[in-house]
Each structure stands twice: as C-alpha cells, then as structure tokens.
From TrEMBL:
Cofactor: FAD
Species this chain originates from: Camponotus floridanus (Florida carpenter ant)
A GO BP entry: glycerol-3-phosphate metabolic process
Listed name of the protein: Glycerol-3-phosphate dehydrogenase
Catalytic activity from the UniProt record: a quinone + sn-glycerol 3-phosphate = dihydroxyacetone phosphate + a quinol
Domain of life according to the entry: Eukaryota
GO cellular component: mitochondrion
C-alpha cells in the first residue's frame, strides 16, 4: 500500500512538472483584441468662463453649496426638469454637510425638555418636526426612510 502511494505521488509530480514545462515553453500567448479608441477627454472650463456662463444664462434654481445636501438638492431639481446651477466656494463635499448625519429626527431631546420642564414651546417644536418628517417620508420616499433606533435607558424617574 505504501509503494502505491509513493508511485501515485511520483506520477503526480512528474505530471505536474511536464504540464508546467509545456505551458512555460510553448507560445500559447492569449492576445486581447484591440478595443475602440477612447475619445479625447474634455478639458474643464476655467472659473472665469463658468462665472460668465452663470451671469449670461437664466436658471430655475440656484443652489449655493456643493456638499452632500447641495448635490442632493441639485440632483432632485434636475430630475424634475429644472435648469439648475450649483456653486461651491471650495471643493465639492468639503463643507459641513458632508460630515452631518442627515437624520430627519423627531426631536427626542426637545420632547424630554418639554415634558420635564413643562415647556409648551419645546412641545410645539417637536410637533412641527414630526409633521415635517412625515411630509418628507411621504413626498420623497426615495430620499428618506424610517430607521429604527434603540435607546438604552439606565434610570427612570
């Protein structure tokens, strides 16, 4: 039985060596087909020419700020068929909107303050925030969706 294993191992080694030398010595090179030539890249317009275009044309919407919120508003306006201009002082997504959470919340902290301090203004703010949240969920379900969250409670009064 041991000699059979030795024979199989030797035959495997010889077969692998033969196969490897065949592929290394043969000229079976696979050549990729040449694709279509790429079109030349467009150069970006200068800032001066962009400002000139902004001054000479009329737009339906002007969005100031090219962060995550501004880019989302521009996308929404364009998909609605509005002629949209977006201006940004720095690089796109370099401002604060790229770092915020974008959560459309109902104002849990304000609700706590309204209840604990019996503050009617805080309650009204929570009520308005929840109304706005419901409107956003209904009018733009592709942009907003409910996100379940669990809050740990360690003590209660």
């Amino acid at each position: 039985m041991a000699s059979l294993r030795l024979f199989v191992a030797g035959a495997s080694a010889i077969g692998a060596g033969t196969l490897t030398s065949h592929f290394l010595l043969s000229d079976n090179t696979v050549h990729a087909e040449k694709g279509k030539p790429r079109p030349p890249r467009r150069t970006l317009p200068t800032r001066e020419s962009q400002v000139k275009t902004l001054k000479s044309q009329e737009y339906d919407v002007l969005i100031i700020g090219g962060g995550a919120t501004g880019a989302g508003c521009a996308l929404d306006a364009c998909t609605r068929g509005l002629k949209t201009a977006l201006v940004e002082a720095d690089d796109f997504a370099s401002g604060t909107s790229s770092r915020s959470t974008k959560l459309i919340h109902g104002g849990v902290r304000y609700l706590q303050k309204a209840i604990m301090q019996l503050d009617i203004e805080q309650y009204r703010m929570v009520k308005e925030a929840l109304h706005e949240r419901a409107s956003m969920l209904q009018s733009a379900p592709h942009l907003a969706h409910p996100l379940p969250i669990m809050l740990p409670v360690y003590t209660y009064v």
